C-alpha cells in the first residue's frame, strides 16, 4: 500500500511539474523583451486617421501591431480602472487645437510616436507587473492570451462583445440542429433525427452558465464607468440571449416528450379482442354500394349493359387519376414555395444577425467617441 501510495504521489508531482513547465514555456515564449514604434502611416477608411506600427520582441518570436492614438487612450483608461492606479509613464497629450492638421504635421506625429513608445516602455520596465500582466495590456499588444486564464465575469468592453458574438453563434448552431432534426423526422430517418437532437442538447447544456457569466461581467462593467445608455443596450442583448435559450430549451424538451409519448402509444397497443369489437370483425364483411345491399340504378347507368358499366367505371377512374395528378402538382408547387420561403427567411435572419453585430460594433465606437468628446470638453 505504501509503495502504491508513493507511486501515485510521484505521478501527481510529475504531472504537476509537467503542467507548470508547459505554463512556464508558454510564458517565456510570450514574455515581452522590447517594444518599439518605428513608424506610422495614414489610412483613409473609415475616415482619415493615423496608425502607429508597434514592433514587439519576445523571447522566441516577434510581431507587429497597428494601433491608433485613441486606442492608446482607451488602454490607459482601462488599465487605470482595472488596477486601481494609472500606469507609469506619460501618455502624449491630445492636440485640441490642431486636430485638422495633426494628421499631416510630421513634427507633431513624430513627437507623438516618441511619446507613445516611451509610454509602452515605462509599463514594461515598471517594478510592479500589475500593468504589463493585465489582460487588457496583453490583448492590446497581441500577446496570445488564453480565455480560460481570465477570471469568470472579468471582461473588458471589447472582450464582452466578443463573448456575446460567440454566444450568438452558438444559438444559431443549436437552431440549425433543431431544424435539421425536424427535417429528418419528416423524412422518417429516426436515427439521424435523434442524433441531431442530441447535438442540440449538448450545445445547449453550457449555454445558460455562459450567459449568466456575461450578465455578471456586464454588472461589473457598469460599476467601472460604462455609460448608462450602453449599459441598457447590452442588458437588452443579454435578455435576448436568455429568451432564445428558453425557446430552444422548450423546443428540445417538446421533441423529447413527443418521441416518448409516441413510443408509449406503440408499446401500449389495444388488445386484439377490443380491436375486433371496435372494427366489427364479428360481422361478415360485404361490399355495400349506396348504403344498400344492392347497387341502385341511376339515369346514367340504367341504359348500359355490363360492358358499358365497366367502361364507365374505367373512365371515372381515369378522371380521378387525372385530378389526383393535378392535386399532386399543386402540392409540389406549394412545397417548393414553402421551401423557398424558409430559405429566404433563413437568409433574412442571417442578414439581421449581421446587422445586429454591425449595430453593436457601431454602438461601441459611438460610446468610445462620446468618451473622447467628454474628455475634450
Question: What descriptive keywords fit this protein?
Answer:
377 residues, mainly alpha, PX Domain, 3-stranded antiparallel sheet, 3 strands, 67% helix, elongated
What can you see in these coordinates?
This protein has helices at residues 2-30, 69-83, 106-124, 135-140, 157-187, 190-205, 207-223, 228-267, 272-279, 306-376, and strands at residues 32-43, 49-58, 62-68. Strands 1-2-3 form a three-stranded antiparallel sheet. It is elongated. The chain is built from ten helices and three strands; from the N terminus they run αβββααααααααα. Helix 5 (157-187) packs antiparallel against helix 7. Among the domains are: 28-145, PX Domain (2-Layer Sandwich), CATH 3.30.1520.10; 157-265 and 353-376. The protein has 377 residues and is mainly alpha-helical.
- Give the C-alpha Rg: 36 Å
Global outline: elongated
Q: Can you tell me the residue ranges where pLDDT is under 50 for at least 5 consecutive residues? A: 1-29, 97-101, 146-153, 260-270, 281-289
Tell me the structural class: mainly alpha
The largest pleated sheet is described as: 3 strands, antiparallel
**Percent helix range:** 55-70%
Order of helices and strands: HEEEHHHHHHHHH
- Mean pLDDT, to the nearest integer, reads 75
How many helices? The count is: 10
Q: Would you report the number of β strands?
A: 3
Kindly estimate the percentage of residues that lie in beta strands according to DSSP.
5-15%
How is the quaternary structure best described?
single chain
Distance between the termini: 74 Å
